[in-house]
């Protein structure tokens, strides 16, 4: 890589890190300040809604199959259903994911 | 409605490793693709690995390589990649209430990807403050190393891997939607939250299908927030509608 490309890489890496770290630092200081003033530190309501909706958005985005086709869409729906059924029974994270991937994979391999 | 508290392992290191495992199914195939793409674009193996280690943000890494190879202006490469990563702005403030005052959290923010954020927000409320740092280091470092490992694998042997086991890249990434699904479900505790989550999910999917993958997550999340407030503002009395 040229010196110029290294500079771009370092700038992006630093910028990405600051995007992740500075807002955290800002909120941590805000919460500490509120606590030191005797009030209960609280996160803005809109932010507490935005967190879960970001996860839902990641879910929606990840639902689009790597290789979109009728089979991969059907496998996605059935794989998610299997994940949901196991989650309903176990309320855990590990087993539902394993079962979901196995069901999805089996459908893609058998009918693909 | 899920009122049952999840059962966590007593060892936060093990719990973090266990929680990070599903991420590998999503991370490694994408990282292999990136490693292969980067080397084929003219970057060296070590350079490719360093890009993954330092930037550690999937979509922006692909964009970085593509724009550098196409000879785009420096400022445009930096602005576009940071713009893609700007969705991370809301992650730190969301998890800040769960992180105790400790300077070690600051360097650990490098590990705060989309998936680690989602895991953190799901897991930390149920953990004791003393376990949170160890859990985060365990899950975060495993995810980071898997990304670096996948990149190296792709850069060194990506072409052969893709030819020999083409289904790996198609099947394993399903671990991510499955993971996100089990994080979304416990939030659907009532009608208002269910509609909010469905709105965010469907908007993101539609945006991605429409060819806007990079703006899908932030835009859909904002739609979800708007839906949440819209449902609150909706009058329940028919008389108020007229």
UniProtKB/TrEMBL annotation, chain A:
The chain crosses the membrane at residues 6-25, 45-64, 70-87, 94-111. This is Branched-chain amino acid transport protein (AzlD). InterPro entries: Brnchd-chn_aa_trnsp_AzlD (IPR008407). It comes from the Bacteria. The keyword Methyltransferase does not apply. Signal peptide: none annotated. Pfam families: AzlD. It comes from Marinomonas fungiae. Keywords: Membrane, Transmembrane, Transmembrane helix.
From TrEMBL, chain B:
One of its GO terms (cellular component) is plasma membrane. Its main location: membrane. InterPro entries: Brnchd-chn_aa_trnsp_permease (IPR011606). The chain crosses the membrane at residues 27-55, 62-84, 133-158, 164-185, 206-231. It comes from the Bacteria. One of its GO terms (biological process) is L-valine transmembrane transport. Pfam families: AzlC. It is found in: Cell membrane. Keywords: Cell membrane, Membrane, Transmembrane, Transmembrane helix, Transport. The keyword Cell inner membrane does not apply. It is a multi-pass membrane protein. Belongs to the AzlC family. This is Predicted branched-chain amino acid permease (Azaleucine resistance).
């Amino acid at each position: 890589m040229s010196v110029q490309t290294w500079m771009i890489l370092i700038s992006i890496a630093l910028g990405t890190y600051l995007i992740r770290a500075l807002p955290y630092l800002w909120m941590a200081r805000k919460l500490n300040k509120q606590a030191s003033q005797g009030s209960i530190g609280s996160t803005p309501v809109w932010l507490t809604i935005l967190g879960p909706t970001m996860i839902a958005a990641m879910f929606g985005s990840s639902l689009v199959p790597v290789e979109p086709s009728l089979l991969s869409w059907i496998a996605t729906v059935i794989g998610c259903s299997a994940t949901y059924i196991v989650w309903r029974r176990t309320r855990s994270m590990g087993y539902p994911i394993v079962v979901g991937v196995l069901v999805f994979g089996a459908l893609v391999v058998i009918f693909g | 409605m899920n009122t049952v508290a999840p059962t966590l392992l007593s060892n936060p290191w093990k719990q973090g490793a266990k929680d990070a495992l599903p991420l590998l199914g999503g991370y490694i195939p994408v990282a292999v693709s990136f490693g292969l793409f980067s080397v084929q674009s003219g970057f060296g193996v070590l350079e490719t690995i360093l890009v993954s280690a330092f930037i550690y943000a999937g979509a922006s890494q692909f964009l970085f390589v593509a724009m550098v190879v196409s000879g785009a202006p420096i400022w445009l490469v930096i602005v576009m990649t940071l713009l893609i990563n700007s969705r991370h702005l809301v992650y730190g403030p969301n998890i800040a209430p769960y992180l105790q005052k400790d300077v070690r959290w600051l360097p650990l923010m490098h590990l705060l990807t989309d998936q680690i954020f989602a895991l953190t927000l799901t897991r930390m409320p149920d953990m004791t403050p003393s376990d949170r740092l160890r859990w985060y280091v365990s899950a975060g470092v495993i995810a980071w190393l898997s990304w670096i490992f996948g990149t190296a694998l792709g850069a060194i042997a990506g072409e052969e891997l893709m030819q020999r086991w083409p289904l790996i890249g198609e099947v394993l990434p399903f671990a991510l939607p499955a993971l996100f699904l089990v994080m979304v479900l416990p939030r659907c505790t009532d009608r208002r939250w269910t509609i909010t989550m469905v709105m965010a999910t469907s908007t993101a999917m539609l945006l991605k299908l429409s060819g806007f993958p990079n703006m899908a997550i932030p835009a859909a999340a904002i739609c979800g927030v708007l839906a949440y407030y819209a449902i609150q503002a909706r009058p329940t009395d028919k008389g108020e509608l007229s």
